[in-house]
Amino acid sequence: MEALSFWFLKGDFSATPYWEFDVGYSCISKTRKTKRRWPAGNAVRQRRSSHHLFASITHRRWDPKCDASYGFFTNHSKLNFVSVCEPSRISSCASFAFGSAFEQQEIGKEFSEESPNPRDSLLNKSDNEEEGSLDIVEGKDGGVFPIKEGGRGDCDYERVVEGKNARIDVRALAWSLRYAKTMEDIDDVLKDFSELPLPVYSSMIRGFGKEKRLEPAVALVEWLKSKKETNGFSGPNLFIYNSLLGAVKQSEQFGEVEKVMEDIAEEGILPNVVTYNTLMAIYLEQGQCLEALNVLKEIEEKGLSPSPVSYSTALQVYRKMEDGSGALDFFVELREKYQKEAIGKDGDNDWETEFINLENFTIRICYQVMRQWLVKGDNSSSNALKLLTEMNKAGMRPGRAEHERLAWACTLEGHYMVAKELYNRIREEESDISLSVCNHIIWVMGKAKKWWAALEIYEDLLDKGPKPNNLSHELIVSHFNFLLTAARRKGIWRWGIRLLNKMEEKGLKPGSREWNSVLVACSKASETSAAVQIFRRMVEQGEKPTIVSYGALLSALEKGKLYDEALQVWEHMLKVGVVPNLYAFTIMASIYAGQGRSEMVDSIIRDMVSSGIEPTVVTFNAIISGCARNSMGSTAFEWFHRMKVLNFSPNEITYEMLIEALAKDAKPKLAYELYLRANSEGFHLSSKAYDAVIYSSRYHGENIDESILGPRPAEKKKNVKIRKTLSEFCNLADVPRRCKPFEREELYTQQTHEN
Fold it and tell me: Model's pTM, two decimal places?
């Protein structure tokens, strides 16, 4: 058998939950102790109780026979009593209650599942009318639970309103009305109550709005209107209608706005600032921005003074329209009025504080709008820069945090101007800046191909701080790699060397990729001496050369006809264990061909095949090209035939190199025939091959039909130009032009100079 246990309300009362008797019961204890709630089934001992109350929940009538110390609820039932005892009588009262309870049938479930909260069973009507509940509200016959004068405490709900003789739990009352849809539904619940204070109704309406239940809110207002006409109730006032308008906004049923405003007009009630502020917020929610701003004008036209909420709502309207300039102009105009004391005269608001809040809110809106512009990307940079300038003129310069947040929104190529402007502002106004923001701006500059600007930011990190981290190094090295790659492709070896020097100057150690880029650029430009010095510097810096490094050096030596030095490099490469690739084999075949050492060329071809590398048409073209540079036409022609025997089809370069070699070797007739053959195979040879055939035949007196050759081909545009000036590269890389010419000393390291 279950024991009777206590649990406490938040106020001066504690109670036991009811059980499933034929007749339920509850226990309420009046106490001054701190509010605590205990689950059912756990016995509770209270040390400082002043009174204990045991009450039946079946009947709600207070028996006035009992005095202030104790009393009973009387009616016919197996368990019908309320006992309020002094501390000295606790044991007798409790034993009386417990004994009566134990005479009942066995206890079933601990709580009714339909009761959402044990305390609700005392404060609300139960869904099961047979079980009933004890309502702590004022009925027609007076309060069912009289409170001593001066008694304090509240129930466990959001709001408790003091009536004439009782405290009214507004939330509990609203809970019983939550499904009401008509005035009749409201009247079924409230018909037994006398007129409640209007704050009770407005609180319930606001609660319905929070729960997006507009129907009971509207029904309650209509019920109040009907009671005004029949029973002489005071009826809904402006506060009631403002609460209803707020409920309309929160429930997002904006179609009811017009009806509410019509009711206000019919009742002869004049709207106040709160009404208009709510209307502005509703228009803002609907996206009707111009209508919201018109409401603000209407406030002033009605002779009312807009509140800080009115102005902040107007600023939100400009945020909705993404009109940062409009928000800024609005605040500047408002500031002028405030300085002239045209606004802020009412004592209801601390305007000095509120005005500071409005200024900060305006700054925040401007930055939100700029961020939105940057995300969308349409003319974002120019618009953002314009708004930043306008904010400066208005004397509204935000701090570092706002600038950094906006810098993070710069992600597109066109945002580099905004990012650089924000960076400069932070550097000018603040001593510190976030390293992550600096890295992000370096990344943006690289994306916009403003590598030199990125390098300037990196230099600031070294000079002013914060100290760059690994990500900073990786970002700036990636930018250098891009510039070095551009220099390599275009054969601008001088800029490649300067970039290497710049990296070392800034404490960045070039890797093999960077060194190889400069070596390839030197090779393309046939700058043999520069390639040798760069290779030497690479080794001195402790960087291990790769096959790309050796290949570029071999190519530079081959173009400079330094064959012996090339052979030494080749032997050293094999000695240190670097495995040659197709490119290295091809260069060595060209070198041996240039020396006229056909047996070594054959040896290289065999080594290629044994290494699993098959020669390509490029390999044979390199051999023929080497023969051509050394006027070895017959040898070149032999390799041409061997190429066809090995089932390699010649291309345009093959024919051009071979024709050039035959023309130099005084074989114009053969060169002429090969030119015609290339034309018949559909190749379009360059003007250089055409000129070689014509010049050789005329020089050696060979009679040929020049008309068969056709017209002279147009000059082919070279893919790689060895530029004498660096202006074009400066434009490409966004780097400053140097006035002084390149100095050969830039090739060498500081250690070499000292030696």
Answer: 0.60
